[in-house]
Amino acid sequence: MLVSWNRLIRFAATDGRVLRGEPILPNPNFDLGQTNEKTELQAKVVIGDDLYDTTGKTRVSDEIVTVRKLLGPLGQGDVDIIRCVGLNYAKHIREAGRSPPPFPFIFFKPNTCIHDFGADVIVPKIAQDNQADYEGELVLVLGKDAKDVKLEDALDYVAAYTAGNDISSRKLQRDPKLAGGVPQWGFSKGFDTFAPLGPALVRPDLIGDYKDLLLQTIAWEQV
User: Fold this and answer.
1) What range(s) does the Fumarylacetoacetase-like C-terminal domain occupy (predicted)?
2) Residue 12, beta-bridge partner list
3) What pLDDT sits at residue 98?
């Protein structure tokens, strides 16, 4: 599906408004993740209530504003549910001492996990003993309801891609004294702010084949 924008950001403008817009990239290699007040990034304001509208009701306007602070591309009210695929990286499976599952391992996060790009994550007191962990993920944003979809039609429901961080509390997930006899995924991964997104939504036709993307997670200057 093709929405009206190519890239979508959500931001606080220099005039005080919180808006969504199409960023005007100063050059093709500009890193949206480095946006701040000093970069003076400009964006065309997106008008319309339905981000994924394909009829023209939602459109990129001619109004140009300057970005003061970048927020997450989606707020909690924009997301009904977060469906996640666990054990989907071979290296991570080995680190966890697990075997590759025969089918995708699915778990869920509530929309209260959604958090702004670059904002501080709030680690609850019960997880502040050096157990909070990060996982960089490729996020697929569905733009319309999908049910009983054929495999070959699945990507037609993807409105955009973005990056995300699946934050976990590992002891609450794996320690039998805390999690019980089986790994506990919902509670350990479902705390507020445990799913930051961004910096932008990007339309699939700009991405091409998502399997060719290079996904890197950088923590403490290490890849």
Assistant:
1) 82-217
2) 18, 69
3) 75
